[in-house]
Amino acid sequence: MLPLPALPARLLAAPIDLNGPGHYLHWGVIQISVANLVVIGLMLLAFVAAILLPFPRFPRKRGRR
Amino acid sequence: MNRKRPRQETPDSHAFPTRPYDLVKEALIALLAVTLLTFGLAALFSSPDEKPATISAWTQADPADFTATAVGELGGTSATAQYGPPYNTAADGQKLGPLSLQKWAGVKHPIDTANDLVLQPLRQTPEPAAVTAALAQWSAATTDQQAKWTSAYTDALGKAPNGDPAKVTSGDYGPVPALTARLLQLGRSGTLDAQLLAEGHYFQTDYTRALLFLADGSYLQDQARAQHLGGDQWGMMNETGNYPGQAWLWLYTFWYQVQPYKSSANADALVWGTMALLSALLLLLPFIPGLRDIPRLTRVYRLIWRDWYRDHPTPRGDAART
Amino acid sequence: MSASQPVEPRNWTGALRRRLLRELPPEKLLPDSQPAYMASWIYLFGVLTVAALAVVVGTGCVLALKGPSWWHLSSLGHYVNSMHLWSVELFLSFMVIHLWGKFFMAAWRGRRAMTWITGCVAFFASIGTAFTGYLAQQNLDSQWISTQAKDGLNSVGIGAYFNVMDFGQMLMWHIVLLPAAIGVLTVWHLVLVRRRGIVPPIGAVTPESETPTEQRTEKQP
Question: What is the pTM of this model?
Answer without folding.
Answer: 0.91
